[in-house]
């Protein structure tokens, strides 16, 4: 056996002692890091210096709440950290941890600095204009900044810690502007005064106007979003489009009092500008009133200096009884008024005025499939029932009242679906309250009702005569006081200056004097496609037609005719 080398054993033991000694010596000499100075406020994404003694590289962690911050070692006694943009509160807890001992050496509240708005680039601003906000503690990334104007988000153009540029939104409803800035996870409201600039109309490009065409208005500070503005022409709210310096207005049909535009008013965000003008309307007719939610199917008649018409509500279904009222038109106001003195639920087949204060109402009774006749006093609106001349159902007769008599001519019979034309003619005397059957030769110039047509008349009284048209014939019949019948090759429209004015089939671009045959051209065709519903009051000519523009849909227009267009045929 070899002998043990005692010298080697001693050397090994000595080395082990040195290791143990050195290890014990390191533990007792370790000095933990201590904080010397640290910030308590800052900004998102901003670098902060924290002074720490006894820093050991890579042995320090910094957190803002649960978000770890990037740590850069600047020197033996300083570290630099960046405030994380992922924090969710403006008052996170700042923690500094010594990894050597896994010990928290700092646990305190850290606050993001509050944004401050000091001033604006202007104290008056308009829509879509750029506004600069000057202040402190904003941000340099626009994803972390938002600005509202009267609680409407504004478009951000640029951001910096001390300046934000925005575009004023158009969805604003008040002229006093409140600016709010959200930055550094906080929202602050400005106390600096800011106002919208007043809108201004400088002028109108048009020298003349046509209804439904465009009226171009120049100005300043209009809201480019038309939904947040209002335009009125002669007090009528209009459809329009807009930019900051121009309005394009669709000229409404009315209501007007005269053939000219006298005022344009613009409103937005509680601000109003009114502009007076004098622009002639070139159309041959203007709307003076409109009747909503009613249908009109009987001749308009004139009584005691006013016009009247029967109308029924359109909000009930087709088969239900109709609810009728009487509307009264005043030549002073040029407006219709719904009278409360008459109301009828049922079906009025015809309504004819006698020229002397009474209206005969020919009513259809669905339950019995029969008819009834009443007489309505237009002075006190009392109504009395009258008998009928025949026990048979007379469908669509020629019905007109003249010289205190009511005439019922022709009409149709319907027997088990077989339609035949009646040739009987009757006269009712309001004096004797009796019916008389006339001979076949009476009113022989008036054709019988067509089996596919109707004898329902449109009529007017002129002098001692009555003029009427009916059915599908394109003619006017005049009955004189002697009951003589004259026929004219036009359907009448209205009476004016002792002339009877009408139109002719296939020549609807002209008015005709039906006596002299003289004609007058009509500038625009919106006078037609209506029923024969003219009436004349106080030397003005009016007529009813269905709505023909985007204004007042599903209504009936009452239009006033430019009477000068017929001067040459009177």
TrEMBL record:
UniProt entry keywords in alphabetical sequence:
Signal
User: Which InterPro entries does the record match to this protein?
Assistant: Gal_Oxase/kelch_b-propeller, Ig-like_fold, Ig_E-set, IPT_dom, Kelch-typ_b-propeller
SUPFAM superfamilies for this protein: E set domains, Galactose oxidase, central domain
Domain IPT/TIG: from-to ranges: 115-193, 199-274
The leader peptide range reads: 1-25
| Protein name in the entry | IPT/TIG domain-containing protein
Q: Which organism is it from?
A: Flavobacterium aquaticum
């Amino acid at each position: 056996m070899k002998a043990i080398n005692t010298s080697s054993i001693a050397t090994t033991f000595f080395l082990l002692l040195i290791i143990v000694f050195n290890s014990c010596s390191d533990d007792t000499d370790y000095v933990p890091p201590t904080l010397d100075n640290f910030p308590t406020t800052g900004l998102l994404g901003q670098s902060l210096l924290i002074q720490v003694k006894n820093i050991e590289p890579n042995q320090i962690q910094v957190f803002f709440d649960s978000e770890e911050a990037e740590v850069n070692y600047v020197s033996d006694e300083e570290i630099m950290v960046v405030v994380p943009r992922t924090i969710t509160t403006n008052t996170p807890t700042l923690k500094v941890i010594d990894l050597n001992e896994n010990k928290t050496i700092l646990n305190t509240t850290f606050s993001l600095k509050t944004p401050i708005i000091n001033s604006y680039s202007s104290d008056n601003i308009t829509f879509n204009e750029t506004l600069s906000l000057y202040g402190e503690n904003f941000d340099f990334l626009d994803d972390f900044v938002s600005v509202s104007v009267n609680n409407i988000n504004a478009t951000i153009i640029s951001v910096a810690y001390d300046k934000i540029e925005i575009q004023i939104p158009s969805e604003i409803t008040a002229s006093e502007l409140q600016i709010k800035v959200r930055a550094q996870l906080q929202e602050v409201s400005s106390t600096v005064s800011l106002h919208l600039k007043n809108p201004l109309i400088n002028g109108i490009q048009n020298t003349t106007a046509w209804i439904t065409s465009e009226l171009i208005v120049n100005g300043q500070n209009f809201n480019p979003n038309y939904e947040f503005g209002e335009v009125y022409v002669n007090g009528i709210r209009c459809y329009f489009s807009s930019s900051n310096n121009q309005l394009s207005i669709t000229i409404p049909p009315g209501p007007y009092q005269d053939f000219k535009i006298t005022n344009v008013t613009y409103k937005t965000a509680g601000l109003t500008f009114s502009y007076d003008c004098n622009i002639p309307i070139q159309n041959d007719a203007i709307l003076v009133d409109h009747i909503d939610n009613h249908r009109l199917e009987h001749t308009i008649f004139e009584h005691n200096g006013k016009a009247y018409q029967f109308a029924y509500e359109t909000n009930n279904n087709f088969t239900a009884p109709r609810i009728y009222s009487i509307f009264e038109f005043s030549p002073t106001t040029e407006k219709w008024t719904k009278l409360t003195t008459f109301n009828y639920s049922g079906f009025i087949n015809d309504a004819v005025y006698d020229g002397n204060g009474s209206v005969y109402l020919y009513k259809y009774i669905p339950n019995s499939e029969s008819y009834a006749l009443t007489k309505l006093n237009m002075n006190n609106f009392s109504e009395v029932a009258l008998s009928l001349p025949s026990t048979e159902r007379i469908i669509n007769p020629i019905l007109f009242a003249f010289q205190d008599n009511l005439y019922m001519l022709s009409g149709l019979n319907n027997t088990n679906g077989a339609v035949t034309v009646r040739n009987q003619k009757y006269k009712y005397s309001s004096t004797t309250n009796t019916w008389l059957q006339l001979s076949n030769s009476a009113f022989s110039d008036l054709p019988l009702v067509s089996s596919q047509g109707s004898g329902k008349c449109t009529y007017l009284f002129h002098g001692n005569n009555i003029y009427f048209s009916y059915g599908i014939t394109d003619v006017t019949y005049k009955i004189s006081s002697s009951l003589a019948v004259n026929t004219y090759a036009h359907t009448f429209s209205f009476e004016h200056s002792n002339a009877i004015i009408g139109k002719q089939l296939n020549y609807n671009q002209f008015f005709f004097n039906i006596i002299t045959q003289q004609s007058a051209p009509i500038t625009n065709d919106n006078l037609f496609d209506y029923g024969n519903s003219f009436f004349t009051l106080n030397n003005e000519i009016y007529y009813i037609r269905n709505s023909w523009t985007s204004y007042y849909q599903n209504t009936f227009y009452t239009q006033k005719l430019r009477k000068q267009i017929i001067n040459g045929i009177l």
